Amino acid sequence: MPIDQHLLVLFTVTTIIAMITPGPDMLFVLGCGMRGGPRAGLFATAGVATSEAVHVAVAAVGLAALFEAVPTAFTVVRIVGAAYLIYLGVQMIRNRKEGQLDTAASGGGMSGRRAYLSGLLTNLLNPKMVTFTIAFLPQFVNPALGQVWLQFAILGTILIVLEFIVDGAVGVLAGRIGGWLRHRQAARRRIDVATGGIFVGLGVKLAVER
């Protein structure tokens, strides 16, 4: 295997620790699971994992250089991502009714398709995730071993699999709890408001951070 075994073990342990620490992705999946059930939680995780694959590819080609050369690019992506999160949160707080097809498909207030796209776009439009991946992965790549792209691919695969396992478990558990609560109308409204508040909070945090 064209990768340093010691670095591989260190990367895996470090990634697991990072994954079990609550962050924006976990909170997002938690909210989707609470609102749309286990299926929505899994689809949201799949969306986040898909965007992580993009981030790994970006890390390999060095988009960080673009953000450094053109600071405006970072700002634009950050603001767009923050606005999207706030939009999602406001929509949930307003509790707009979705089509019966979406509701039936998800078993709750968020369809699998919407959960997937929301997870994909929310993570994809977060430049901090891009810069983190760019800064994190190269630390565990050894150019002397050659096949740098393959090393990135191996590390990226481990990162994505671990994220899917951890966040997926959170989404399913949150979905089961949310499913029980959704049978009570008052509780369901609280779920929508609480989830919307989480998304708005994440959006504001992303917008104000530098």
From TrEMBL:
Where found, per UniProt?
A: Cell membrane
Mind telling me which InterPro entries this protein's record contains? LeuE-type (IPR001123)
List all membrane-crossing ranges. 6-30, 73-94, 115-137, 149-170
Q: Which UniProt keywords apply?
A: Cell membrane, Membrane, Transmembrane, Transmembrane helix
Pfam families registered for this protein in UniProt: LysE
Topology in the lipid bilayer? Multi-pass membrane protein
What name has this protein been given in UniProt? LysE family translocator
Q: What is the species of this protein?
A: Streptosporangium longisporum
